Amino acid sequence: MSRDIDVLVLGGAGVDTIVHVPELPLPYADSHMIDPGIRTRAGQTGDFVALGLGALGLRTHHLDMLGADPEGDLVRALHRDHGIPLTEVPQPAGTKRAVNLVGPDGRRLSLYDATRAHPDDRLPEPTVRALAEASRHAHVSITQPCAHALPLLRESGTTISTDLHNWDGENPYQKEFALAADIVFLSTTALTGTPERTMRAIAERGRAELVVATAGAEGAYLLADDEVTHIPTTTPRRPVVDSNGAGDAFASAFLFGRLNGESPQRCARYGAVAGAYACTVPSTEVDAIGRDELLLQVAELEASTVAAPH
């Protein structure tokens, strides 16, 4: 069977309105003057992963539900401008949208519009099956239509990854994704106890061969071959302005390494470099590290590690 798509990205297409606030949590006031202004742009988790993969040279296809609305037009234009094929399924409730409050230190608080989805939302089975059977790998966002697509993805024989984001380690909704994926990404933000406990539980109860827990400025943790290792952060080459999209960039670069046969540790280094790069991109813009720049920075990082005294 021909696998002409490297990565099929399911879900996570939408639009964010970026609001820079003087601090988080935002103190109550009758009004706040917002500088550098308020901007609406296409780009949620699935969009960012798809663009990140495409920037690294992987043949990427995005599948999701979109509305016939201005927000959907922004998403369509984003994919068209970056050359990412997009298969859209009509969403009568409208394209997903959120408001992101961004503090001076780059931290983010997202407010998601829950009216843009319904419990009976589905991605058409023939479409999912056809795209999955043409793909080497599928990265699945944790939206309701994608949950129903998981059995079809497994049947297709493609490997699966997912990002649980700020899972608490217990919520059964995210757990379904965690146990169905071969590669699991999550944030340590909402975890109770050590990240290792949750990471091992995912691997023991599900199918995951690799589990990555990102911890912001503390780096990340990688579970591979029954061993948990710490992956330090890397220093970006430009000032840090925003953490928006860093986790998606990490996942994209990690998958790039995995699909190119790299070791889990090198995949994680790819992720750390790409995540650091994403932190230098303002949330009002869309940009992803390219293949040549990623390989150069990782090579320099590895050379400096070897040269450092022990």
Strand order of the largest sheet: 5-4-1-8-9-10-11-12-13
The H-and-E topology, N to C, reads as EEEHEHEEEHEHEHEHEEEHHH
Give the helix level as a range of percent. 25-40%
The tally of domains stands at 1
Write the CATH fold name. Answer: UDP-N-acetylmuramoyl-L-alanine:D-glutamate ligase
Rg over CA atoms: 19 Å
Could you state the CATH homologous superfamily? Ribokinase
CATH architecture group name: 3-Layer(aba) Sandwich
Estimate the global geometry from the Cα principal axes.
Answer: globular
* Head-to-tail CA distance between termini: 49 Å
How confident is the prediction overall: mean pLDDT? 93
Largest sheet descriptor: 9 strands, mixed
CATH C-level name: Alpha Beta
The counted number of beta strands is 13
Number of helical segments? 9
SS class? alpha/beta
Report the uncertain regions: none
Strand content: 15-25%
Account of the 3D structure:
The longest helix has 17 residues, at 291-307. The N and C termini lie far apart (49 Å). The chain has 9 helices and 13 strands. It is globular, with a radius of gyration of 19 Å. The strands form 2 sheets. A 9-stranded mixed beta sheet has the order 5-4-1-8-9-10-11-12-13, sandwiched between helices. It has a 4-stranded mixed beta sheet with strand order 3-2-6-7. 36% of the residues lie in helices and 24% in strands. It has a single domain, classed as 3-Layer(aba) Sandwich (UDP-N-acetylmuramoyl-L-alanine:D-glutamate ligase), CATH 3.40.1190. The chain is of the alpha/beta class and 310 residues long. Strand 10 (183-187), helix 6 (195-205) and strand 11 form a beta-alpha-beta unit. One of its GO terms (molecular function) is kinase activity. It comes from Streptomyces prunicolor. This is Adenosine kinase.
